[in-house]
Design goal:
- It is a single chain.
- The chain is built from seven helices and ten strands.
- By secondary structure, it is an alpha/beta fold.
- It is globular and about 70 Å long.
Length: 288
């Protein structure tokens, strides 16, 4: 009697998006409306792919439609249909983003493939939201980019910080003697009990040059550290407080209030009726 074969788990979802079982970066953490995790992943794929195509365009992508129009001239209908069917059956191009399973309500992690820089991607989006008041998402609360991830052990965190910080310090060091900078470590620990906050902060501080001094009230530079279960993510950036800690709903509401809109209007282009998302908190209370 032949043994029945177990069906293989698909690497891709039905919509062609990629899924991963483990969390690995670089990537972007996102908090969202409870119960809307699947919808959040979908809207973030659309948003990130749109931004990435502008920031890191794929060579030849812009000429594809023009070339197709030129080829279509003088081709009969049957040949056009055959070519379209072949295009549909052609394997989907490798996406630059993948949803990593967190198995936790309200918590999403989207990993990024080179050349995508999660810090630049998220900063560009939140700046657009601050200027326009349009989030282009319905269920997403806060976005937190991490330039790399590692196992949450002190040696691993130390090594990751050196790799992530080196380009930033080289670009922002300047001057002889070096100009002093004020910085703050923004640490968030969730579903993790091995390391204490003080242990992590002290280890990260060892990776910061002496010209950088701690300022908890008015920092210029922010070191974002996210420890979630058995993963630690790190990034370094500026303007974190000015951009409402990358809370896109808070930024959209701030813009709406400044222009005397009614509460919540204009946050999502073409989606004025929020339904369940409209009742979500827009401040830290809504984050996990």
């Amino acid at each position: 009697m032949t043994e029945s074969k177990q069906p293989r788990r698909r690497k891709y979802r039905s919509d062609g998006s990629r899924a991963k079982r483990t969390i690995e970066g670089p990537g972007i953490w996102a908090s969202c409306v409870k119960g809307k995790e699947k919808q959040t992943v979908g809207e973030l794929y659309d948003l990130f792919e749109s931004l990435a195509s502008q920031l890191w365009p794929i060579e030849g992508e812009g000429r594809r439609e023009e070339h197709r129009d030129l080829v279509d001239e003088g081709v009969n209908l049957e040949d056009q249909i055959a070519r379209e069917l072949a295009a549909i059956k052609r394997p989907r191009a490798e996406t630059r983003f993948a949803n990593c399973q967190t198995n936790t309500p309200c918590v999403i992690f989207i990993s990024c493939e080179p050349p995508v820089d999660p810090v630049r991607l998220v900063t560009t989006h939140v700046q657009n939201v601050q200027q326009t008041g349009v989030t282009k998402t319905k269920y997403t609360h806060r976005l937190t980019p991490v330039s790399g991830t590692c196992y949450p052990g002190l040696p691993e965190i130390h090594s990751l910080c050196h790799r992530v910080f080196a380009p930033f310090f080289a670009e922002n060091g300047g001057g002889d003697p070096p100009r002093t900078h004020k910085y703050k470590i923004e640490l968030r620990i969730r579903n993790h009990s091995t390391l204490t906050r003080m242990e992590v902060i002290q280890e990260i501080a060892k990776c910061v040059p002496e010209s950088y001094t701690v300022d908890l009230d008015d920092p210029e530079v922010f070191i974002l550290v996210e420890i979630f279960k058995s993963v630690c993510g790190v990034s370094i950036l500026k303007d974190f407080y000015r951009l409402q800690k990358f809370n896109v709903m808070a930024l959209a509401n701030e813009k709406s209030e400044a222009e005397n809109f009614k509460c919540g209007a204009g946050r999502v282009k073409g989606k004025e009726d929020f339904g369940e998302a409209g009742s979500a908190e827009v401040h830290d209370k809504g984050d996990v």
